[in-house]
Amino acid sequence: MAPEAISDLEFRHLTKRYGEVEAVSGIDLSVPKGAFLAILGPSGCGKTTCLRMIGGFEQPTEGEVRIAGQVVNGIPAYQRPVNMVFQHYALFPHMNVAENVGYGLRQMRPRLPSTEIDRRVGEALEMVRLGSFAKRRTHEMSGGQQQRVALARAIVNRPKILLLDEPLAALDKKLRGDMQLELLQLQRELGITFVLVTHDQEEALSMADLVCVMSAGRISQLGTPQEVYDHPTDLFVADFVGKTNRIPVTVDGGVLRLADGRALPGASALHGSAIAALRPEAIRIARAGDGLPGTVTHRIFLGSFAEYAVAVPGIGDILVTTDRRGATEADLIAPGEAVCLTYDPAAVLVFPQ
Amino acid sequence: MRVFLSAVYLFLYAPIALVVVFSFNAGRSATQMTGFSLQWYGKALSNVFLTDALKTSLIVAFTSAALAAVFGTMAAMGMERLGPRLRAVFDGMLAAAIVVPGVVIGIATLVALAGLFGVINPVLAELSSTAPQFQMGYLSLIAAHGLFSMALVAMIVKARIASLSRDIVEASYDLYAPPFATFFQIVLPQLRPSILAGFLMSFTFSFDDFIIAFFVAGAKTTLPMYVFASIRRGVTPEINAIATMVLVASLILIALAWLLMRERKPHAA
């Protein structure tokens, strides 16, 4: 594969300090053209600051932001070929839908002919399925519709990069699912690089080609959703992306030992105190058999799957998720029942403490 | 309790109602109703001194309110950029400017302008013997009223700016509009109702003011000054007619301002 000539977005040792506080600490990142990048992290990890530095609302303290190969440090937001979908949409309240969407095109110099503006606004509204809403006032619309107006207002300008700041946070769960699909389709259709900032791991995993997990101003891991989920590079990523059971162990000659000296199936090249991480869905639960014995303390019924909390002597509470496919009602285990937990030793990831 | 409340309102509004009622009196008396007539309105409006005073008042009110609207808005926008400490100081000074008694503003403006003219006029005379000399009149009236009104407009506009979301300004920058274009296309339309409300309140204030005007009017006479002067010759139904007209005009303007200020609430969050 030929290397990408120019990536649409690149950070070079990007740093942002507010007085004493370092929000972003020397980040390096390169996003291939047309990729869908999700920056994922807890609040305060610096992800929004990164987005605002791409948009031009903040300027880096050190390092560079490059858009399509050009260093954009010091260039104000209104001269950057990127557009943003704001968290609370930020629609202009005194303009109707079409006026909102056409705002960016009307700022272009030399001026675009009004017939072209009208045509492009119409196309953008069609793309977000709001073709018949052109004359509506924005405050008469639902949250989902306002979201689409904000989206149309950004894509109509054909930006190099589309920035999305927690765009789905204000929508209800059902709508959020629909919008995720729509965003994904739109991105494939337009071929524009999307950069999404979110604290919702499900959102990041389901939409992005590339997930950048951030913590305390640094990148913890950059990879495809599968890589990040299946091969987290550290305990933070394992914990933040998906659920994880953390089991304190001592590694002794490649063998994992629990505090009471029992051996835990699994292996590691580390030495000394460590944390073994195990995904809840990697564990099988049964009423009898070989494995870790325990007692079910809680059961959370989630429709298509069930979640159990199992008290395992010597370890503590272990979370187990079971798929209900092919399961009968009799297979549901009630709190109080004694169970046995088994898993594939290869599923255990061991991280230094 | 209700009787007490009714009494308060009666004492508050009965005199005003009387003024309005007697403005329609057919006779000369301001205390004895002898029939209904509009003749005093006609008399008032054909009185040259009165229409002159009215003209002065309108010019001063309009000009000072317009200046106050422009500079008050600029002040409010500028204060938005201040740090929290300095801003508290300026906020306090704005509020203080509004509660300073008219007498004080009148004297202060008079002394300040007299001092200023005392410096400028000799220089002007030196430059040319035909150069006009500054004196109290329109200029001093507009300056004094404009200064006070500016604080009023700044207070009203500031409240609106505070409720304006920073997001839509950033959205405008993001959509290629530089700061100047953003101000005219996004910020100003959002502030327009409050600026207009500030203008109307300023206009009403200037139009009704007697105390400040009394100090700085020089040879000019505003409407309230005319009314005050003519009362010395006794209260006539003509005065009542003038008062009624001023009252109605003021009420309309204030009501308009109030409507403008409470408009634009529909903000879907």
Q: How would you explain this protein's 3D organization?
A:
The complex is a heterodimer of chains A (353) and B (269). With 353 residues, chain A is an alpha+beta fold. In chain A, 24% of the residues lie in helices and 35% in strands. Chain A is built from eight helices and 20 strands. Chain A has helices at 47-55, 97-106, 114-127, 143-155, 173-190, 201-207, 225-230, 235-240; strands spanning 9-18, 21-31, 36-40, 62-67, 70-71, 82-85, 161-165, 193-198, 210-215, 218-223, 245-252, 255-257, 263-267, 272-278, 283-286, 292-301, 305-312, 316-323, 338-343, 349-352. In chain A, strand 1 and strand 2 (21-31) form a beta hairpin. In chain A, helix 2 packs across helix 3 (114-127) and helix 3 (114-127) crosses helix 4. The longest helix of chain A has 18 residues, at 173-190. Chain A is globular and about 75 Å long. The mean pLDDT of chain A is 90. With 269 residues, chain B is mainly α. Chain B has one domain: MetI-like fold (Orthogonal Bundle). In chain B, 78% of the residues lie in helices and 0% in strands. Chain B has helices at 2-22, 39-46, 48-80, 84-99, 102-127, 138-163, 166-174, 179-208, 211-216, 223-231, 237-262. In chain B, helix 3 packs antiparallel against helix 8 (179-208), helix 6 crosses helix 8 (179-208) and helix 7 (166-174) packs antiparallel against helix 8. The A-B interface holds A 55-57, 76-79, 82-84, 86, 88, 90-94, 103-104, 107-108, 138-139, 141, 146, 153-154, 157 and B 165, 167-168, 170-178, 181, 185-186, 189-190, 264, 266-269.
